[in-house]
Design goal:
Glucose Oxidase, domain 1, 26 helices, Beta-Lactamase, Enzyme I, Chain A, domain 2, 4 domains, 8-stranded parallel beta sheet, alpha/beta, 16% strand, 8-stranded mixed beta sheet, disordered N terminus
Length: 754
């Protein structure tokens, strides 16, 4: 069976001619197997297609019994065909029947064929089927023959996915056409129905077959040279803000861009008859299929690096932009991305966004905070989603449950449409409570405020009837900027925020950076445990110039007004006193320059480090107010990284230990007449908010979408009854992991909506 590189080139052109003919999909497949058998001088050529149930069905054959078409099937992993589909790797055998995975099917009449060559039909790493050639003679297939068949299978995959093969009778044609249900992590509540917009859209390859392989090799090498040059320039000038990339990511890109094995495989694919872009896609699809079957997390992470690099190379080859233009955004866009920074999400037209789906990013990431600020449902940790969707696919995002439905069936879509309608009616009921004071049944006024960080958050004050901003995250301005904001730029933002809220209070938190909040234009400090490292006030006290510039901007913006500033990550009373001293120096600077001071200035502390619990009485006497950062406080109390899915849900903030710690803070605030607010996620969930009120907290800060549900709970709650119930629980509890069930029972018995 001699094969030259000229063979596959001729075959590719003939395949294109067959697909252009106005015949049925089955007729096209029947002609394709004849063409391949003739070109490969094979006595058998067969195409198996993988169905939704993972079974492989014989769809077309030349050489085997035609009666076996649509009758012969292989279960997942069964037989040589099933093995190829499972491993996503080619298999060449001189004596197929001696292989332990060989499965004899008498209806096919294949018992006379000894030698076997099979390759997976892959697209975007998903197995669509298997392509097989066989001969009666016992022989060894060459590497060139395997390469030729793999090239044909790549073209066949594109033809199956894009050429109308979906009309074939058997169900399912792989991951790119069938419905997919994904379960991830909720980032922002809500239900969104729309169509996929890939944040970095994949190139749609229209020209698969090369007219001149030699010219295509030159195109490929020129594109690789341009890719290397771009990465080298970014690293050389240290511009790690470009696209939000960190230096170590670019260094990894450079390593892969010079990998000789990767480059050799692409050149070989071009020489077999593919265009340069088709060769890049074929090699990357093979790599993706193999690496998705790896269990090593490091290897799977390298897949993302290769995906990014291949995507860049494809965009260079076709001259396409890496991002979708704003005028191309559909009215019901759901953004799908591997990961995304907050600035990138803010670049999209909010009026057209219906949701966000990510492969990476936790509930406390800045893009999650921005999604909640924009009021769009968002879900993360949907594995490999960018490879499973196509631009324009129908998709549903359920931010409450963390579920994503890709290409949903009509009945599933109807269920979610009804869920969205019910949610809209419920939100309308909450809106009716907007002007009603949040007062419990026994007369306890609860101060409900909003968490914010961008000007886009502030109109929610009017929409929700909240009493002010309990937490303004100033670091978000730094996160979305391409460079360090100047003092004047910071002052403009803070003044605009104060102007927008009018006479309602705003509590500004100074920069909370470090840990998982790395500014793209600042040098990254390598730490063994960043969450417990150099972050927040620790950076501010070690780099007082940065803190002084921000405090100066805040004090100038608050001239003639009431101003509230709090410091994050305070671990000792001494740290607060040192920070307060810097504020006093800035006030003296204002006085020297005859500028107006704030009419009133309150300095507070974010209680989130457990050590402060053992100085809680002292800090309550020193500070003007306290604010509980429940997210970090719970993570540090339980030594459980909230971004680590293995332990994030292992401990409950409604456990006895956590509630006792919170009660300690509330009691200290009352004793020192120091106001205390809870501004972490606990304050925005009705059952947790009920527990906090029972512990003595009277001020809660939350996302805009949480105000309605929490206020509805407050209006039905008897705070004194809840306090007595929780006090008894904490006194009598023993060996119980969580009090959540008991609190739910109390709410149910007292008709409190949670």
């Amino acid at each position: 069976m001699p094969t030259t590189f000229g063979g596959p080139r001729v075959l590719l052109r003939r395949l294109r001619e067959v697909m252009a003919q106005p015949t049925s999909p089955q007729d096209k497949l029947d002609r394709i197997v004849v063409l391949i058998a003739s070109n490969m001088v094979a006595e058998v050529c067969s195409i198996y297609v993988q169905r939704d149930d993972k079974a492989l069905e014989l769809f077309a054959t030349e050489g085997l019994n035609r009666e076996a078409v649509h009758l012969t099937t292989m279960k997942a992993g069964e037989g040589l065909v099933g093995l190829i589909a499972k491993e996503a790797e080619a298999l060449a055998l001189s004596d197929a029947q001696s292989h332990p995975s060989f499965s004899y099917r008498p209806e096919t009449g294949e018992e006379i064929y000894r030698s076997f060559l099979g390759v997976p039909i892959l697209r975007a790493g998903a197995t669509l089927g298997v392509l097989v050639v066989q001969n009666t003679a016992t022989r060894t297939y060459t590497d060139e023959e395997m390469e030729a068949l793999q090239t044909v299978s790549m073209v066949l995959a594109e033809l199956i996915a894009q050429g109308g093969m979906q009309a074939l009778a058997a169900p399912g044609l792989g991951a790119q056409t069938r419905p997919i249900h994904g379960k991830g992590v909720s980032l922002a509540d809500g239900v969104g129905l729309g169509h996929v917009v890939l944040h970095e859209p994949r190139v749609v390859i229209k020209n698969l077959i090369a007219e001149s392989p030699e010219a295509e090799v030159k195109r490929l090498e020129a594109a690789i040279g341009e890719l290397r040059k771009t990465i080298d320039e970014l690293i050389a000038r240290g511009d790690v803000s470009h696209g939000g990339e960190h230096k170590e990511v670019l260094e990894t890109f450079r390593m892969f861009a010079h990998d000789q094995g990767w480059l050799r495989r692409m050149r070989e694919a071009v020489l077999s008859g593919l265009t340069a872009e088709a060769a890049v896609e074929r090699v990357q699809s093979d790599t993706r299929a193999r690496m998705l079957r790896q269990t090593d997390p490091y290897l799977r992470e390298r897949l993302h690096d290769l995906e990014d690099l291949a995507n860049r190379l494809l965009h260079i080859l076709v001259g396409a932009d890496l991002t979708i233009s704003k005028d191309q955004l559909p009215d019901n866009a759901i953004i799908v991305a591997r990961s995304m920074g907050p600035a990138a999400l803010l670049d999209y037209d909010r009026s057209r966004l219906r949701g966000l789906v990510l492969e990476e990013g936790g509930p406390t990431s800045h893009v999650a905070i921005v999604a909640r600020a924009l009021g769009i449902p968002a879900v993360s940790e949907i594995e490999n989603v960018t490879a499973q969707v196509e631009q324009g696919d129908a998709i549903i995002v359920d931010g409450a449950s963390g579920e994503v439905q890709i290409r949903p069936q009509p009945d599933v879509e109807n269920v979610y449409k009804e869920k969205a309608r019910l949610r809209a009616r419920r939100q309308e009921q909450y809106r009716k409570l907007r002007d009603e004071p949040a007062v419990t049944r026994d007369g306890q006024a609860i101060d409900l405020k909003l968490n914010a960080g961008l000007l886009v958050d502030l109109p929610h004050l009017e929409e929700t009837g909240a009493n002010g901003i309990g937490l303004f995250r100033t670091e978000l301005q730094f996160m979305v900027a391409a460079r360090m904001p100047t003092t004047a730029e910071q002052q403009a933002l803070y003044k605009a925020a104060l102007d927008m809220v009018g006479d309602k209070p705003v509590t500004f938190r100074t920069l909370d950076i470090g840990g998982d909040k790395i500014l793209p234009y600042m040098r990254r400090v390598e730490e063994e445990n960043p969450a417990l490292g150099w972050r927040a006030i620790r950076i501010g006290l070690d780099r007082p110039g940065l803190l002084r510039a921000q405090l100066r901007a805040l004090l100038r913006a608050g001239a003639g007004r009431e101003l509230k500033i709090m410091f994050p990550m305070i671990a000792t009373v001494d740290e607060f006193i040192r920070a307060r001293t810097i504020v006093q120096r800035e006030l003296a600077h204002i006085d020297r320059h005859d500028r107006d001071r704030p009419s009133g200035l309150s300095l507070g502390v974010m209680v989130e480090v457990p050590s402060l619990l053992f100085e809680i009485d002292e800090i309550a006497r020193e500070a003007d107010f306290l604010s509980v950062g429940s997210n970090d406080l719970m993570q540090f109390l339980f030594a459980a990284d909230r971004e680590n899915r293995l332990v994030a849900d292992r401990f409950d903030p409604l456990s006895a230990g956590a509630l006792r710690a919170l009660k300690c803070i509330a009691d200290a605030g009352h004793s020192a007449q120091c106001p205390v607010t809870v501004c972490g996620e606990m304050g925005g969930r009705p059952i947790e908010a009920m527990a906090l009120i029972a512990l003595g907290f009277r001020s809660l800060s939350m996302t805009a979408s949480s105000v309605g549900p929490v206020k509805a709970m407050v209006l039905k709650l008897d705070a004194s009854a809840a306090a007595g119930y929780v006090e008894r629980l904490l006194r009598d509890v023993s060996g119980v992991a969580t009090l959540r069930g008991a609190l739910k029972a109390f709410a149910h018995d007292h008709d409190v909506p949670i």
